Amino acid sequence: MAKQQQPISPLKNFFAGGFGGVCLVFAGHPLDTIKVRLQTQPKPKPGESLLYAGTIDCLKKTLAKEGVKGLYKGMAAPIIGVTPMFAVCFFGFGLGKKLQQRTPDDILTYPQLFAAGMLSGVFTTAIMAPGERIKCLLQIQATTGEVKYAGPMDCVKQLYRQSGIRGIYKGTALTLMRDVPASGMYFMSYEWLKNLLTPAGKSHNELSIPSVLFAGGMAGICNWAVAIPPDVLKSRFQTAPEGKYPNGFRDVLRELIREEGVASLYKGFNAVMLRAFPANAACFLGFELAMKFLNWLAPDL
């Protein structure tokens, strides 16, 4: 394994992660919109066909009806939420790594990297849960054609008025179930691929841009392979009318499997995987470049 040159700095991770998050949203939001629309499309009435036949059909219909702007619907919420969220995510990972090191030169094992990644998932849920709830509601209102919310802030106000802070944080347990194992997978697979792609005797910092893009993109795919089933349940639960699922995710799971079978837990799979590679490749490249800049700017921080 290549020796770590730079001691781990959770603070630098925080700023570099925030920049990585902005890169991720710009690269990945259009396919996120399609994913949510596919996951939450209404069940067709007898004799009618589904609103969207699949990923490409949803893309075509969205472009025809709303233009390119339609693909970036609800992007203000993730930009406002994702920048601090990725900052906190990478900070949590940095902290998780630092807490497990006895000395700054310690090289962590893969289970330790997985544990550090899981800690980052706990950190991000506090920001992620309300951000996801707002994003999903704004994305599906464009599909139903019924405009209930004028924008992210209006959505927060209305949710708070209806059911207080609990309304805004609806789906937190499902967000935790999705993000804790998926974040562990995300960071561990990224570090593993970086080690795999680093030539013998070279340091991680000398990895080429294509290698960073490949490792970041594949880490995104590993992350979503773990995250999709709880993500489908979360999208359903967060966009359901009040009181529809009194027992939370157990009710959503029962209904989905009863009505649509186990395969429905992988709804939006193609859209997610198409988005995961470029979005996370952009995220990790942004992170690595920002990290190099910060190490140059403040080597001792």
UniProtKB/TrEMBL annotation:
PROSITE patterns attached to this UniProt entry: SOLCAR (PS50920)
Gene3D superfamilies membership: Mitochondrial carrier domain
Start and stop residues of the Solcar repeats: 8-99, 108-196, 207-293
Presence of keyword RNA-binding: no
Domain of life, source organism: Eukaryota
InterPro entries reported in the protein's UniProt record: MCP_dom_sf, MCP_transmembrane, Mitochondrial_Carrier
Membrane topology: Multi-pass membrane protein
Keywords: Membrane, Mitochondrion, Repeat, Transmembrane, Transmembrane helix, Transport
Spans through the membrane: 12-31, 75-95, 107-129
Cellular localisation: Mitochondrion membrane
Record keyword Repeat present: yes
Similarity comment: Belongs to the mitochondrial carrier (TC 2.A.29) family.
Protein name: Carnitine/acylcarnitine translocase member 20
Record organism: Goodea atripinnis
